Amino acid sequence: MVYKTLTKAFLIAGVAFGASSGAYAADAPNTMMGASDSMLANTCAGCHGTDGASSGPAIPTIAGLSNDYFVEIMKEYAEGTVPSTVMGRMAQGYTEDEIKQLAKFYVAKPFVKAKQDFDPKLVKQGGKLHDKYCEKCHAEGGQSAEDDAGVMAGQWTPYLRNQFADFHAGLREAPKKMAKKLKDMLAKEGDAALDALTSYYASQQK
Known about the structure:
The structure is a single chain. Mean pLDDT is 86; it is low at 1-27. This protein has 2 domains: 35-107, Cytochrome Bc1 Complex, Chain D, domain 2, CATH 1.10.760.10; 120-203, Cytochrome c-like domain (Cytochrome Bc1 Complex, Chain D, domain 2). The protein is 61% helix and 0% strand. The radius of gyration is 23 Å and the shape is globular. By secondary structure, it is mainly α. It has 10 helices and no strands. It has helices at residues 2-27, 37-48, 67-79, 87-92, 96-107, 120-133, 139-142, 157-169, 176-189, 192-203. The termini are far apart.
């Protein structure tokens, strides 16, 4: 009788513990063994630099972007809607909660503008092209992150050129307004417009 009573008590306790554990698991963020923001970011540092300040020209700086943009671009990489060599596979390895953690970490870091060469003769023309075709979505000469459209000013030129090429070739879908603006600019100004535009962005190093 005592044995049956104790067994029943243990079973009830076990069910109660399991239920409470399940409720806790449902509420807890789905992260890799409770990894912190900085621990998750260590995986990114090898390519994107310490605190997201890239030193490689084909790899973008990812610090100082807006939260919405960071989360959205990571989801697009994971879904394969943004062409990539490595990032697609990397993004697929993160849970939604982990992507949000990474966004929180990098949004708080400063965007470090790349020290790179540019053609000073093209900067003025590039500024005019930016004002005409890009400023509405990339404010403050491409420096603002608040538009949720990335940061253009001070970003690495080879990376920007690759993105322009993907948009133009239809490998990456652009928002409707951007697609029209890019098409109009290239039709009127030719490919040389991209040289001027990227020189303008590269000239902003402070």
